Amino acid sequence: MPFAPGGITDVLGRALGQRLSEAWGQHVVIENKPGGGTGQVGTEYVARSAPDGYMLLVTADATFVTSPHIYGKLPYDPINDFVPITGLGISPQALVVHPSLPVRTLGDIVNFAKQRPGELNYGTFGIGSSGHLNIVLLEGMTGARFTAVHYRGAAPAITDLIGGHIQMIIVSIGLVAQPWQAGALKVLGFGSTERIAQYPDVPTLAESGLPGYEAGSWYGLAAPKGTPQDIVVKLNAQTQRIFGEPSFREKFLAPNFIFSIVSSPEAFAERIRLESAKWGKVIRDANIKAE
To answer: 3-57, pLDDT tens digit by residue?
Structure first.
């Protein structure tokens, strides 16, 4: 797990690990190794591990899709160092602000930012993470300008938002639902393609003035390159079975607003390819670079 505990990647990995332990009678250890931008430390650790099926990577889209376009040199090769096993889940994001900010809608915060370019700080979970690039995309579509503050995971960024150290974040709905309901945060809209059934009064960002805008994160399972095909097939089949169980969906996916994207290894590889092409253009147009 190349991110800090408490984020959606961590939630998904621990839920899957628990069910794999039960299914196979093997203890699955979840090891968080955050650091190095968008999880480079933990990702390299897995890439250099023996390809025997005993070391796996649960990670977010940035690992394979955006980091290769942002960093001049990565300590891993997303294509040649890994074999895709399956996508896991996708989680729409919420645009969230600190309650002290005098805004109620997407239009309000765009106007506020245009009047005070760069004054509003937003938290990300790493350069090139979805929490970073979805704001960059919003900037490109509106002309507003914000200042990014990069963290090693979503959880510490949310903690700083609640504490008022930053003013804004775009992050998975499940991570902010509880503090939002408690009044510690304010939601301006969701990055989903349609309104969320549990919160029918919250508009999508697309209908709030950004037609076609979507914001979310997806997560997947991979293994070091060279992992035997029969192990990949076994892991894929077991993961698809687990994600297909109504009890798993009700206990882990639904409360965190995660929608299953389990698939064949080939379909997961194609998702990576298409998303890489899409976000590569956004990154080039915004001239985002990191070392």
So the answer is: 888 888 898 999 999 999 999 999 999 999 988 777 899 999 999 999 999 999 9
Tell me the three-class secondary structure of 77-129, residue by residue. CCCCCEEEEEEEEEEEEEEEECCCCCCCCHHHHHHHHHHCCCCCEEEECCCCC
Q: Please give the structure tokens belonging to residue 270.
A: 């194609």
Residue ranges per domain, the chain?
8-90+217-286, 91-190
Digit-coded pLDDT (tens) for 125-135 = 888 888 999 99
Question: What is the CA angle 38-41-43, rounded to 5?
Answer: 75
In sign, the C-alpha dihedral spanning 20, 24, 25, 31 is negative
Which pTM does this prediction carry?
A: 0.83
Confirm or reject CATH 3.40.50.620 for domain 8-90+217-286, answering yes or no.
no
Given a contact cutoff of 8 angstroms between Cβ atoms, the answer to whether 174 and 258 are in contact is yes
